[in-house]
Every structure is written in structure tokens, then in C-alpha cells.
Amino acid sequence: MISRTAIGLMSGTSMDGIDAAVLTRCGNGELGQGPALARPYDGETKARLQAILGGGGGRAEINETAEHVTRLHADTINELLKKNNLNIENIAIIGFHGHTINHQPEQRKTCQIGDGGLLARLTGIDVVDDFRSADVAAGGQGAPLAPLYHGALAAGLPKPLAVVNIGGVANVTWIGADDEMLAFDTGPGNALIDDWARRCGLGDMDMGGGLARAGRIDETGLADLLANDYFHRTPPKSLDRNDFALPPSLAGAPGWSAADGAATLTAFTARSVAKAQTYFPDIPKQWLVCGGGRHNPALMAALRSALEAEVVPVESVGWRGDYLEAEAFAYLALRHLDGLPLSLPTTTGVPHPMPGGRLNRNVV
Question: pTM surpassing 0.85?
Fold first, then answer.
């Protein structure tokens, strides 16, 4: 194994922006985190992405948005390189996830917009993109894809261990004492809470969890949400961001003030994560939380209550919670170069360890 440095990119289902992170894998397999950068999306970009979720909008609109998003990714990389005096000659590969607009693995469909060839030309660096298609085409869920990176990071930690990523959708990686893995989407992450805040005219999110902390949980409404068939499906399993979209009736739910709705939906995310334990071979010694949800004190408190366990941000073990997914796609791009699998039967339900991704050479 040779030493290589990669840049990973992530545009998550929360639609908050682009994360970019440098990751070096040394010849002995050790990993080193380099500089990282977050670039928020402006209102126009968020609106354009929202308009094509689920395959909405025409083909021309999707293509135009894909090019727009790709150019924003290129700008993010160039800013990262410039700010940190990094030379493109030292970057072996870019891992470009793109932005998911549709994910229906049961129909063998998944779509992440973004043009890897254009990104390679704009940055001068080879790009691996299209990480999910091969897995889905082979019958896998195509998600989550970060577990192999979680496993590499967790090599020296006490196990069993659970890593929960709370973005728009929440997913979990369970790692056993012998490094066996199980991974799947647990349910909604921040998406419903964010959508509720917008519906109530209170911004793009429940900043700091203040709205949820001011409200009361509607246990009857919560029970209805938790009755969704998804929670009875055996993993591996995955979700599209809009699989748990707010029904129109919730806006006028009796007794649901803005605060009560936020409290109930925050509890929904936490108890969805707790339901995941049903499928674990052993109860985790610790839950490590990454993604934007760990910045929400109300959600973290709800997780601790629902799990009745030690729940801590991944920073407590030295990981970078804001850039973990970007790092993961840098790691997967490096595995692609080595011809190694990106997913496993126990992480996506694919029939056998599955390579994936598509290499786009920098051709001027």
C-alpha cells in the first residue's frame, strides 16, 4: 500500500452546503486528517436543489443545477487548496459524492447530481464520483457508505460501538468486538425538524434546539410517526430524504404549537435511533454522534434519554464531526484506486463486497 492524499466532498441531505476535507492514508494504513473547509449554500442554490428533489423539474433544470453545484464544488476545492498552500500535484484523487436528489433502491434507482468529468477539468485533479450506482444495481441499498471509514477510525476503540450520523437522514454503524459491522438508516435526522421550522416561518432550522426545548412532546402524534412500516423492516435498509416528509395535516395538528411540533419531531429522530438497537447483536458500550444534529442540544438530550447510554459527540474520541462524511468519501476514493470494496452485505445489503465509483481523469 502506497501513501496517497485525497480530498473528499459531501453535499448532504440537509442542503446546508459543501464540506471538503483532506485525508492522507499512509503506507502502513494509518490515516491523517488534513485541512478542511465548509462552504454554505446560498438561498438560490438551496431553492434550486429543493425544486429537483425526487426527480422534480425537467431534465434541463436538473442538468443546469448539476453544473451549478459542480462549479460550487470546484470553487470550494480551489479555496481549500489556496488557503492551505496545497499543491494539486500532491493530491492523488478527489472523492465527489454529488448531491442526492432521488434514492429508491427498491426500484434500483439512485441519483446524485454532479459532473465528475467537469470537476476534474476545473480542478486539475482526477475525480471518483457515482459511488452508489453499482451497489444499487447489484441489489444493495447504496447507503450508508461511511461505515468502512468508521471502522478504520474505530480500530483502537472499545467495542461494541455505535456511530450515529445525523444529517437530513440519520444512519448508524454498529461495530462489534471482532470488527464485524451492521449499518443502516435509522429514520429522519434533521430533515423534519428543519422542514417544520420553515413551515412555521422560523428559519431553516431549530437553531440550538431552543424551539424544541420550549415545547411538549405529543406522545400520541409521536406514536403515529413511529408506527411507520420502515421501522419493522430488517436492515440493511436506507431512506430518501423525503420518505418521511411532513404530511400537510401536521401544520394544523390540534395542540401542535411551533414549539410542540419541534419537540415531537426531535423526539421522533431520537426514538428512531433507539429503535435501531432491536437489530444489534450486542448493545453498544458507547454511542458516538457526528453530523449537524450533534450541534442541537435538545436532540442530544433526547438521544441520551431514549438510549439510556453514553452518547457523546465524536470529538470526544478525536474525530472531526463536521467533516466525517467528506473524509469518508476521500477514503472511499482511495479504496477505489486500490480496487477495494466500498460496501459490504452487512452495510448495504449488497450480495457480496462491492467495488464502486467511477474514475474521471483530468483531461484538458
Answer: yes
